[in-house]
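Internal tracking record. Fields below are filled automatically when a chain is submitted to the structure queue. Please do not edit lines marked as system-generated. If the sequence contains nonstandard residues, flag them in the REMARKS field before resubmitting.
Queue: standard
Priority: normal
Entity type: single polypeptide chain
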Amino acid sequence: PFLCPVKEFLKFGSYGPMSQLGGKEQPTKVVHNVEIEINGLSNRGLIMRSNIQDQIGQWSGTTITTRGRYISDEMKSDILKKMERPLYINITAVNKDWDSSMKKAIHYILAVLGLKKVPTGSRGYHLDQYPDPTLLKLCERDLEESTVPFVERVPCAMGDQPLPWNIKQEIEGPNGAYIEHIVQSTNAKIVMRGILSGNLEIETGKELKEPLFVQINHSTLEGLVEAKSLVDSLLNTVHQKIREKRKNAPFQKTFGVPTSQSATDNASRNEVVYPMQVPGGLALAQTSHKLAM
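SYSTEM-GENERATED OUTPUT FOLLOWS
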């Protein structure tokens, strides 16, 4: 007699159920999962990138996804009541060489995160056996030699303060010297995108309708991390310089806000109003973009 196969979700390296079809037992597809805890890691953003996950998946023969949500220490008590999982990386292997594939994926993830041991809280098949130093070095070498670009977006926002209209020039420096120094030091490709960037997108011929950010592209993970560190330092310096100027300006309360009824009317018509400084520290409203809301 014909019997329907039993459907069961399996994880953590257990073996699959058997189904009976035509009187003969046949093994069904086996799903093996490992979960790598990343919620408490400061550099978790790297392994959460889709291009990095896709590349590791191709190298190892697994499927890698991000699951859960970020939970800070202040949020833990409320989140535990809702039974929500902290951020983790889920690795799935279904092929016949799943053991080897899973091992490769775990070591690649450790290499991306720069870890020498599996993070506490991770779940899966024999995680206590990892990492293998030799395999970890091979994975690190593959990442260094990869031609797949690593990409990082660094926001230029200043919290609740508006950006000045000349923020691009402040970040780039005289004749672009600040950005050029980072490019020469790290071999990274750096471009500013978004509102106030002056960078027109190929598809639309206009600035990207997103808050200003610095985009960093690099062929290696190590180079990306180095370039991002320098960009972060540059933005902190620029932001501090802007705050000092505003603090010492005699009309600091009007900086970055409409100073006339006409400017206010422009803002109500979905036009973005940017501050424009003039001698004496007075901020005038300058309408430079109109966004479709």
